[in-house]
Amino acid sequence: MNVLTDNFSLYGKGFLGTVELTVYASLLALVLGFVMASFRVAPVGSLRVFGTVWVTVLRNTPLTLLFFAVLLGLPRFGIVLPFQLFAILALGCYTSAFICEALRSGINTVPTGQGEAARSLGMTFRQTLGAVVLPQAFRSVIPPVGSTLIALAKNSAIAGSFSVTELLGTYKTLNELGYSIVWSFIWIAVGYLIVTLSISALFNVLEKRWGVAR
């Protein structure tokens, strides 16, 4: 227990770093995922191609490699940001590909007749998607989106290898101070458990309220 009590501020700083990474990267992933899902079902061919390339490239790229590309590659093009923002960008873009596919699968569950009926009433693609299709798709994608964001929270641990303050990175300092590596990792695991269970609880509430009855 002294590992936690003696280093509570260190754990707290790492925990808050993980929470910040998770929250901001999740918001970015949700926005980009929604945009790319809209592109993938759009009637414009170039948008569909762009969405497909985005998803294909990011889903098949190791996250660590993407971190290297963003944190070490972008500064070479004159884009200099704090490492935390680079980490949020890498996590958000990577996860957006999975959010996109979850949303697209939900969109595909909506009967095509409803979209056709909306268009026959003179509604545009944007109006059909926003007022008819997405509200119904949202109900079926709550569980997979929640699982994807839980994975994002755990993936944030990679950021610690790139000088970003987060929970897993605290073990380096604790190890240098001579604390038990086993107990250091146990308390780190507890911190991640708090984050993931919080996300799970939030999406359980959303599912009970708006989810599809099974």
TrEMBL record:
Keywords: Amino-acid transport, Cell membrane, Membrane, Transmembrane, Transmembrane helix, Transport
Subcellular location, record wording: Cell membrane
InterPro entries given in the database record: AA_ABC_transptr_permease_3TM, ArtM/GltK/GlnP/TcyL/YhdX-like, MetI-like, MetI-like_sf
Pfam families, A to Z: BPD_transp_1
Annotated membrane topology: Multi-pass membrane protein
Lipoprotein recorded as keyword: no
PANTHER family from the UniProt entry: AMINO-ACID ABC TRANSPORTER PERMEASE PROTEIN YHDX-RELATED (PTHR30614:SF37), MEMBRANE COMPONENT OF AMINO ACID ABC TRANSPORTER (PTHR30614)
Stated family: Belongs to the binding-protein-dependent transport system permease family. HisMQ subfamily.
Protein name in UniProt: Amino acid ABC transporter permease
Native source species: Streptomyces hesseae
Taxonomic placement: Bacteria, Bacillati, Actinomycetota, Actinomycetes, Kitasatosporales
